[in-house]
Amino acid sequence: MELNSNKNVTGFKLLCYLGLALFFNHQLKAQEKKVIEKHELSVGLGVGGTILYGSIPKNFDRKIGAEYKLDVLYDYYKKRNFSIGTGLMLSKGKVGIQASDISQSRDIQAEETRTFKYTSGLYQESWDVTTIGVPLTVQYVIEGKVDVSIRTGFVYAFAIQSQAKMEWQDVNTSLTLKDYDVALTSPGFMGLGSFGALTENREVSIGNRLSWLIEVGMKKQIAFKQHIYVGLYADIGLNNQASKIESSDALLLDYTGNENTPLQLSTLVESLGKKIKYSNASIGLKVRYMTKW
């Protein structure tokens, strides 16, 4: 009888241990499910460089400009390490081109007996462009002591401001009268002669922008459900923002014959229209604060 009693006690203990194991296993799984927060909101700041990479005349050089980005993103986690995100991105960047020892000429259309010509030691054109974009991205997270985040997707951005600045140095203009074989280099008030510098700054509309975005960086938890992210980004324009601009066929520095504004300054985009591919690409550093729930 005592032997059977011991067996019953041992069996009871085994059942208790098994029950406790199943209970704790259930609790652990429930706890694991709870810690998979579905929502993430982040605010990011990016600083980098941007450059035009589309087609421009061969005698022009591209200039790298600064770019600043501010974004607010919302991510929904379909799985523990995979999310779909969207939000708003504010971007402000400066791109430029320049050409040395540039010259152009054309016959005056009204009277082909006259030819206008200019030469310049240096021409510089810069664009300050501000856009507001809507991204659609996917993110994959490789978990560890420090998580690795890989994000990619597309951004459609509205060009809300595009300011163009044209700067000329060492300009010489002339008007040749073919019938008399004479080149007029004055008067200055008619836009003829030598000018040390000419500058114009104005709004020039360009199209909206579609770009491919990729970000790779590290996420570190700094507090309960709060993370800091540091990484690199690349933002590559896919469309020609000058595609809807018709060519004016005007010279970059053209003669109007108007006494009030004898010389007309045009950007490369205005002069050549969609013959120019206005697309820019940028790369930089991104810092982001994240909170999850």
Please give a quick description of this structure:
The chain is mostly beta strands and 293 residues long.
Describe the protein:
This protein is mainly beta and 293 residues long. The protein has two helices and 13 strands, in the order αββββββββββββαβ. The protein has two domains: 35 residues; 256 residues. Helix content is 13%, strand content 61%. The protein has an eight-stranded antiparallel β-barrel with strand order 1-3-4-5-6-9-10-13. Strands 11-12 form a two-stranded antiparallel sheet. The mean pLDDT is 89.
The beta-strand count equals: 13
Give the uncertain stretches in residue-range form.
none
User: Taking strands numbered 1, 2, ... along the chain, how are they ordered across the largest sheet?
Assistant: 1-3-4-5-6-9-10-13
Can you give the mean pLDDT? Answer: 89
Number of domains: 2
- Given the structure, what is the number of helices? 2
> Percent of residues in beta strands?
over 45%
Could you describe the largest sheet, including whether it forms a barrel?
8 strands, antiparallel, barrel
Helical residue percent band = 10-25%
Salient structural properties:
mainly beta; 2 helices; 293 residues; rod-shaped; two-stranded antiparallel ribbon; eight-stranded antiparallel β-barrel; 2 domains; single chain
SSE layout:
Elements: H1 2-34, E1 39-52, E2 61-63, E3 65-79, E4 82-107, E5 114-142, E6 147-177, E7 182-184, E8 193-203, E9 209-223, E10 226-237, E11 253-255, E12 263-265, H2 268-272, E13 280-292
Antiparallel strand pairs: 1-3, 1-13, 2-4, 3-4, 4-5, 5-6, 6-7, 6-8, 6-9, 9-10, 10-13, 11-12
